[in-house]
Structures are given as C-alpha cells and as structure tokens.
Structure prediction request, 560 residues.
Amino acid sequence: MTGSVDPFDVIVLGGGAAGSWAAFHAARTGANVAVIAKGLAGRAGATVSSGGRIAVCGETLVDELGLDADPTDSKEKFFRNILDGGSHLGDPFLARAVVDGVGAELRILQDEGVQFPVTPGGVGRGPGSSVRTPGPDLQRAINRLAVRAGVRFWEDFHAVELLRDDAGPSGVIGVDRNSGTVETIAAKAIVVATGGTSSNWLKRDTPEELAGDGQAMALRAGAELIDADFMQFLPCCVLHPQLWRGQQFTWRILGPQGGIHARLLNRHGERFMARWSPDKMEFASSDLVSLAVAAEITEGRGSPGGGVYLSWAHLPRALLNDVPLWHEQVRPGWNWQGYELQGLMDILFAEGAIEVAPVAHCSLGGIRIDGTGATRVGGLFACGEATGGLHGIDRLQGTALAQALVQGRASGLSAADHARGRASVSTGSYADARDRILAPLRREDGLTPHEVRERLVTLTDAVLGPRRIAAELDEALATVRDIRENALPRLACRTRDPRFNRDWSDALECDSASLAIEAMILSARSRAEPASDDLRWNGIVSLRDDGLAHERHLIGSETI
Ligand SMILES: Cc1cc2nc3c(=O)[nH]c(=O)nc-3n(C[C@H](O)[C@H](O)[C@H](O)COP(=O)(O)OP(=O)(O)OC[C@H]3O[C@@H](n4cnc5c(N)ncnc54)[C@H](O)[C@@H]3O)c2cc1C
Prediction:
C-alpha cells in the first residue's frame, strides 16, 4: 500500500489480537478499515508468542459455546475473581464487559473452526475456567477473518504521531520501513492497539517492539493514562543460562504454579519466603513472590547473575523425571508449548537449581478508556494491552486475551460509528511532524540511538521492577527528564539508508518510550508516597503545556 489521499473510515494502529479484532468488527459494519503494524501483522507483538489461554467462565462455555464445563463456575464468580485478582483497583465496568462479552467473541472464532479445549481452574491456573488455543493459531484465525471482512494491512509501518484537524484526530504520520519514506495516512477515526510497554525492561519475556508508542501518541493527542505503573511480572523466569532467559517453564510447570514444591533460596541458602509468607511459602501469590525475590536481589542476597535460586535438590530425581508421564502440557523429551527443553533439564538435573528473577510480562496500566473503547479525545479509541484500568494491580491468567477480544469489538464498532458521523478529514503536509521524524536521520553528529535506548531500558529495569523505592524513583525521574531534554535532540543515526534503518527506529522509540517511562515513574512515585496507606485510587497521567501531570482519582469518583 502507498500513501493515501482518501481517508480510511478507521485506522487501527497495531496488528495483534486486539487491533486485528477491532478492525474485523469495524469492517463488518461496512467501514473502510486499515491495520497499521510496525512489523508483520500477526507475526509481531505479544499475541503471537502468547500461550493462548483465554479466560471464560464455565457458565458461558456451557450456555454460549455448547462446551462441556462446570456451569457453577458462574459469571458472577468470574467477575469477582477479576476484581479480587487486581486488589479491587480495576474498573468494575470494564471487568463486567469482559465477563459478559467474551463468549460472543469466542463463538465467532469457534464458527471459524478454532478448537477450544477447556481447562478448569486449579492449582497454578488461578480461579475459574479458560480455553486455550496456541497464540499463532489464534492470531491466524483473527487475521483470516479480518482479511475476509475487507480489512487492509499496512505492514512494516512505524506509526509515530497522530494527526488532527479541527474535528479531532485525522490520521497518523510515521515511517514506511520498506520504502524508508515518511507517510501520512488519513482516517476519520483511530484505534490505538499497539500493545504494552514491556520492551522497556531488560528482563522480560515479551517481544522487542512494545515500547509504548501508542501510549505516547495517545498522551500527545490529549488522552490520559491510568495506573501507568502497573506491570505484571512473572516472578521466577530463567535468568541464566542465557539460552533460556525469560523462560517460565520451570516456575509454571516444575514449580509452585505446576503444583510442585520447588524452593526459592537466596545466596545463603535461606528459604526467604518464610519471611514474607510463612504459611504459603513459594505458593504465595505471584506479586508477593515477585516482591520477595526483588527484595533479595536489591538487598544484596541474590545470585551472581542478579537473581535467586530455584531449587529441586530436596526432591528425588525420579519425581521430576516422571513429570512428562502425567503432565498434560509436557511431551516426552521435555517439549513444552513447542520449546525443546531437554538442555535446560540437563542443567537442572546436574546442578539441582537454576537462577531465576522476575520479568516484565504484561502491561496492566495504559490508555484510559470507557466500556465503548473511547478515550477522552473524540474520535480516538483504544483496546487491548495498550489500555489500562481493567485489571488493577495484577491479573488472572487468560484475561489479557479475553480483554483483547472484548475491547477489540467495542473499540472497532465505536470507531466505525464515529467515522459514519464525520463527513471528511483535512489533509496537510504536516511539515513540522515530518521534520521531527526525519531529524535523527539528517543529523550529522550526535548520540547513538541504540545507546540511549539501552540507557532507558537499564533505568526502567532498575527502578520499575516489582519493588519500587521512592528515592530511586525521584532520581530516575530526573534522569529520564534529562534524557528527554538533552539526549533526544542529539540523536543521530549512524547509517543514512532510510529503509529498515534500525538506528532510526531506535531513535523514534527513544522518544515515545521515554515519555511512557516518565509517565510510569510519575505514577509509581505517587504510589510509593510513604503517607498513603490507602491505595483505593487510580493514578491518572495527562500531558499539559508544562509537561506530564499525575493526579489521584478515588475509585469510582470520576468518569472519563
Ligand atoms: C509469552 C507470553 C505469553 C502470554 N500468554 C498469555 C495467555 O496465555 N493468556 C492471556 O490472556 N495473555 C497472555 N499473554 C498476554 C497477551 O498475549 C497480551 O496481553 C495480548 O496478546 C496483547 O494483545 P494486543 O493486541 O493488545 O497487543 P500485541 O499482540 O502486543 O500487538 C501489538 C501490535 O502493535 C504493533 N505496534 C507497536 N508499536 C507500533 C507502532 N508504533 N506502529 C505500528 N504498530 C505498532 C506491534 O507490532 C503489534 O502488531 C502472554 C504474553 C506473553 C508475552
């Protein structure tokens, strides 16, 4: 596709589950829709690498999908579980929408031939039921439906800034990586579905393109972020050996989440969970384990690689050897979800323990929306992991994909509706935006974008892990503001060829990521206030003339 003159009715930024599902629903109403994706749609982003578990209660499975499930696993329980899981910091309206809406979305996928084996709740799975279809299969089915509904895909397009005319958002400007040109794409309504912010962490299990571009674009356009600091960490992913870095198999299958009594030890061999949760020990909630592990590491009792030890040394080897004989998800030869893990098991058997640490997994805070997917900016909608407010401080397994589907539908339909009420879109040259985007490519001398990106990632990893300390956040806020003020204007690409120019992408990501990181630090700093033991508020960040501002909104006191 080349630069458009005629506006689309709807453009969706992001081609993961949420974005492509939004586009599918918008196109089904007859709207002219395009998905703009930074990578290849459906082959980049978190969805395609996900485990594909989708939370849905037994009542819905029986009533709406005709599947064999526990009907006493009711919608009401599912709703309560979502709110309890997030310590009641999530929005009940958004939670209700997921509970009531996910069945209809799964039904569309079921009619498309997607198989949904049912998994009841239980040890390590969290409460309630879920269905599971591998991430790549889910994404493929969604894309197939979107293409059939007439959605056009503009891939390898790095969206940078939203455009606006007198009537509101009017399109997007960004880099077509293929041609290396700066293009504008006009639209009557826009859906932001660019995923989370997790690639701003060094230790993560997510792909690299999730820098927070959508959150930054939305902020600049006048939308708000809610609880930007909320990030779900997986407590104990492999840190070392490097080959399996980020892998959660040992915790999820061979650890407490799999019902196996592995032990967490610090460098002194102490089972430190005894200090945090003497009753539950390693079976404590994920956020408490993440916090405990982070504390061991930051207080200097961690392993040389910067983690702690997960140990099976107290268990007979036969017990572990037998896991593939009974575990429904592990195949002989230690194959799990397509990973060949024999090498990791060899190390585990030889050494009895491996080094693990919390990794960033899924953004829980993000663009503030209502149940229709609307932000406070008319014509700008959002869905999926780019948004915040649904989960609260933690989330149940499978709810992120349920969210992507339900919010995808809502935002797609709302955007199509908005577009129908808008006659036209003004187009312009947007020379200033174009110059800003091209600046790092044109600059002769300056800072290497990759190095500044590394500084940002190192900073985030250090202060926005599971454990947040006020003084460190203050220092980090000053650092990120300094980077924004003094480093960004000096970014200079080392190579001038604009096509698939990694330096250029890094430079553009430095800009959006640094704004998203500043918002996260501001939010986290407010929550780290020693005086506030009442956590019953959401943190709202907006961009004002003098920079980012943070406010606390008591839960339920404000509508968008
Ligand atoms: C390893 C792993 C396993 C998981 N397993 C599960 C699970 O079993 N169940 C569950 O519920 N959740 C799971 N999650 C979380 C879940 O997968 C995600 O929350 C969900 O897929 C997010 O979907 P999304 O469409 O919002 O974003 P994504 O799928 O991340 O898609 C974002 C899209 O935006 C694009 N994009 C980003 N920036 C730009 C830009 N500037 N311009 C244009 N495009 C842009 C990306 O290229 C991508 O296409 C898992 C996550 C991971 C990492």
User: Anything to note?
Assistant: The first strand starts at residue 8 and ends at 13. The chain has a mean pLDDT of 92. The chain is about 35% helix and 20% strand.
